[in-house]
# Entry
Amino acid sequence: MTGYAAPIRDIRFVLDEVVDLPAIAGLPGYEEATADLVGSILEEAGKIAADVVAPLNQVGDSVGSTWADGDVTTPEGWSDAWNALVEGGWNGLPFPAEWGGMGLPQVLNLAVQEMWQSANMAFALCPMLTQGAVHAIELFGSEEQKARWLPNMVTGVWTGTMNLTEPQAGSDLAAVRAKAVPEGDKYRISGQKIFITYGEQDLTENIVHLVLARLPDAPPGVKGISLFIVPKVLVGEDGALGARNDVVCASIEHKLGIHGSPTAVLVFGEAGGALGEMIGEPNRGLEYMFTMMNHARLNVGLQGLAIAERAHQQAVAYARERIQGKPVGWREAGVPPIIHHPDVARMLVSMKSRIEAMRGLLYTVAAAHDLAHAHPDAAARKAAQFEVDLLTPVAKGWSTETGQDVASLGVQVHGGMGYIEETGAAQHLRDARITTIYEGTTAIQSNALVGRSVLRDKGASLEAWFDRQAAVAKALSARSGLADLGTALDAAIDTARLASAWLVEANGRDPRLPFAASVPFLMLMGALAGGIMLGRSALAAQAMIASGADHDGWAVAKVALARAYFGQTLADVDARWATIRDSSDAVLAVDLAFL
# Structure
């Protein structure tokens, strides 16, 4: 497996030119995010990712976390890497200083998280989920709960988890059976949770579990779920650690990938009930947990980007060294590396252009989070929140499906050597496979997109979003050398409008139809959003060229990558529209007895 080099130049370009971090830094509360500080943070995070976290990726895969008698041992080096993040205060980057954080924008935090995820996805799940748990307590916890739990979680002295899934429930949280029985001002929690990432580990002295459970008088279904803080080790009024809580790790899962990440089965209440405290109001737990889930969904989308970046770096390194056959049209002496074969170049360009598109999309959603949180104008906050709600399922679903495809192409570039574990290319593909499943499958993301962003108001809000994106097409059309991209993007937006209108019309004929077409529609929206992002990138890159700032051809390559994306991937908009229009009725007409 090759090493990892943080693509800081690419990241900085998206931050500054595509999502306008300098403007976000001007919002109240984000003034510390100066250009110099941003540069220092990215450089230092890149070094830690490359030198500390990335070297553990292969050992984490080959050795994995192990379980014995309720205890979990993470791979060698994991603890040292975690301590490096704690000592640098990295876990607290987006949180207020009052809890030990840096108070910096979420979009900058996402850029740092990209580096951790590319370097070692199995390791990076722990800080990712801890940050999500912090967000939930920060938003919905009492002042006393914030003071008790947040300082150690923000700094990374303690970690956090979310406990939703149960054996009989899966993604159907209405079937959750875990119980919470009142005992004074606390609750006794009992039940079993599965698929709990870092539910047990040896990195920190405490783990703060956020657990969905039902009160004795709770109504049935999702309206009867409450949210509880259930620590691994009880914490006294003075903040000191006390006795071990009644939470046991019964086992960890044996998985296709991310072997270094312990995925735990947790049993609560075998000895009378785990002691916990409720967050917020009774029966609103799922509403609160969705805050953490949406944070996780954006970050799982980020994993799609991150694993694609790592797979691409490895594929490029291999293609620059491997000698095999003379490429068609090669007229120089000798046999060059396979990167000069036209089809290898095609694969590598496809990988790179989609990586650029994913990065632009994910950072745009994170920037919208910052705007929705900190912009002084209420209308601007509302518009930003709509973009978050619209694009989060697209960012999660499309980026993970694309990341998986890019990782597969990484194996293909290696040829037969890619199928051999020692090269490391196969690990990226195995690790990527879970991303389209956890934190809501691609279908769950697609159903949310169609149900909430299209059918809820019959496409009116989405139509307004299309109108706003048309400005990018207009700007491209007005720029010399980019007019053809503007024409293509404008046509793609019009096609997306047709698909949205079809969903609304089809819903009136048969409510199953829009959801038979929901995944193709999400993939259509992802391809379109990626085109919008690379349209913005091309505009910024061409401005660099015109100003004489492109000293090494880097900006010229940015424009070329945008053009390649438009030819290779934006065309998916038309293909997905054809699938939506022509196959949805046919799918529902098939007699399932003959499948």
